[in-house]
Design goal:
Layout lengths: L8 E6 L3 E8 L4 E5 L10 H7 L4 E5 L17 H16 L3 E6 L1 H12 L4 E7 L13 H11 L3 H11 L2 H12 L8 H16 L5 H15 L2 H10 L4 E6 L7 H10 L4 E5 L6 H4 L1 H20 L10
Parallel strand pairs: 3-4, 3-5, 5-6, 6-7, 7-8
Antiparallel strand pairs: 1-2, 2-4
Helix pairs in contact: 1-12, 2-3, 3-9, 4-5, 6-7
Length: about 300
C-alpha cells in the first residue's frame, strides 16, 4: 500500500444517503477535513496522518464528490453540503470540531461556523473560496474555464470533454491548474487520485451534473460580497488562513480582503505555492498549521477567549 494511505480507514455513514469518509486516526478533539470543488478525501493524503497528532482526524467526501453520491433531497448545492457537514460533525465527530477546509471546503467551513457556532471550535482555511476583488490579475485560463462552466449547455459539454480525456489526463490537468509545480505532488497521492477518477468514470461517466451544481451555487454565493462578509462576521471561532502566494483560483488580493475583515484571524502566506498547498507543499503546509493547532488547543483547554492575532 502506498505510504500516504497507511493507517487510513474507509467508512460510510447514512446521512440521508450514504456519505463516504476516511479516518486518519488520532485521539482527542475532532478535526474534520473538507475538500474543495471537484475534490475528495484524497486531497488530504499527504498530511492526514501527521495532523492526527493534534486530534482525531476524519476527511469526508461531500455530496456529488468522491464516493458520496447525491441523494433525494440532498444535492451537491453548497447549501445542502453545508447542512451535510453539520450533520457529519454531529453524527461522526460527535463533538465540536476543528474544520480544515480547502477552497469550496473553506467557504463551507466558514458557513457552518456561522450557522452552527456551537459545532465548530476552530477553522483552518486553506485557499478559501472568497468573493472576487476588483484587481484585474485573474489567470485567463481560470476565467475561461469558470465562464464556460457557468453557461447552460456549454458547461455540460465542457465536463463531457474533460471526462473523455480519461482519468490520468483529468487528474493531471486539474493538478496543473491548482499547483504551481504539479510534479511536487507525491506520486502515491497522484496515483490515488487517478484510481478514484477511474472508479468514478466507470460508474456512469463521473458526476458532471453534480460538479456543475456545486460550482454554480458556489459562484452564486460569492457574487454577493456583502452577504458573504456578514456571514464571516458571525463566526466566533478562531481561524488560520493559509494562502498560496501563486494561487490561480483564489488570488492573494482577495484572501487579504478576508484577512482584513477579520484581523483577529491569523494569515499565513506560502510563497511560490498554488491552490492546494497540502498536496503541493505538504511539509511547508504542516509547518504553518501545526504550531497554530497546538496553540489553539492550549488556549481552548485553558478556557481562554478563542481569538488569535494576525501574522
Amino acid at each position: 500500500m502506498p505510504i500516504a494511505r497507511e493507517g487510513m480507514k474507509s467508512h460510510t455513514v447514512d446521512l440521508g444517503g450514504p456519505v463516504h469518509y476516511v479516518d486518519f486516526g488520532g485521539s482527542g478533539r475532532p478535526i474534520v477535513l473538507v475538500h474543495g470543488l471537484g475534490g475528495s478525501h484524497l486531497n488530504w493524503l499527504p498530511v492526514g496522518r501527521r495532523l492526527a497528532a493534534h486530534g482525531h482526524v476524519v476527511a469526508l467526501d461531500l455530496a456529488g464528490h468522491g464516493r458520496t453520491p447525491s441523494a433525494p433531497g440532498r444535492t451537491a448545492h453548497v447549501d445542502d453540503n453545508r447542512r451535510l457537514l453539520g450533520r457529519f460533525i454531529e453524527t461522526v465527530a460527535k463533538a465540536p470540531a476543528v474544520l480544515m477546509g480547502n477552497s469550496m471546503g473553506g467557504f463551507l467551513s466558514m458557513a457552518e461556523a456561522a450557522a452552527e457556532p456551537d459545532k465548530v471550535t476552530a477553522l483552518v482555511l486553506v485557499g478559501p473560496a472568497v468573493p472576487n476583488t476588483k484587481v484585474l490579475s485573474w489567470h485567463p485560463a481560470v476565467v475561461a474555464l469558470f465562464a464556460g462552466y457557468a453557461l447552460p449547455g456549454l458547461g455540460g459539454a465542457l465536463m463531457r470533454w474533460r471526462y473523455a480525456r480519461g482519468p490520468e489526463k483529468l487528474v493531471r490537468d486539474t493538478l496543473r491548474l491548482c499547483c504551481v509545480d504539479a510534479s511536487l505532488v507525491p506520486p502515491d497521492a497522484v496515483l490515488a487520485h487517478v484510481e478514484l477518477a477511474r472508479e468514478r468514470l466507470g460508474n456512469g461517466g463521473g458526476r458532471g451534473r453534480e460538479f456543475l451544481e456545486a460550482q454554480r451555487s458556489l459562484m452564486a454565493a460569492l457574487i454577493r460580497p456583502r452577504r458573504f462578509y456578514r456571514m464571516v462576521a458571525r463566526v466566533r471561532a478562531p481561524a488560520l488562513i493559509v494562502q498560496g502566494g501563486r494561487d490561480r483560483l483564489v488570488r492573494v488580493a482577495a484572501a487579504r480582503v478576508l484577512a482584513r475583515a477579520r484581523p483577529d484571524w491569523r494569515f499565513e502566506m506560502l510563497e511560490g505555492v498554488g491552490h492546494v498547498p497540502q498536496l503541493e507543499a505538504p511539509e511547508r503546509f504542516l509547518a504553518a498549521v501545526e504550531p497554530w493547532l497546538r496553540g489553539t488547543e492550549a488556549l481552548l483547554s485553558r478556557g481562554a477567549p478563542s481569538r488569535t492575532s494576525e501574522g
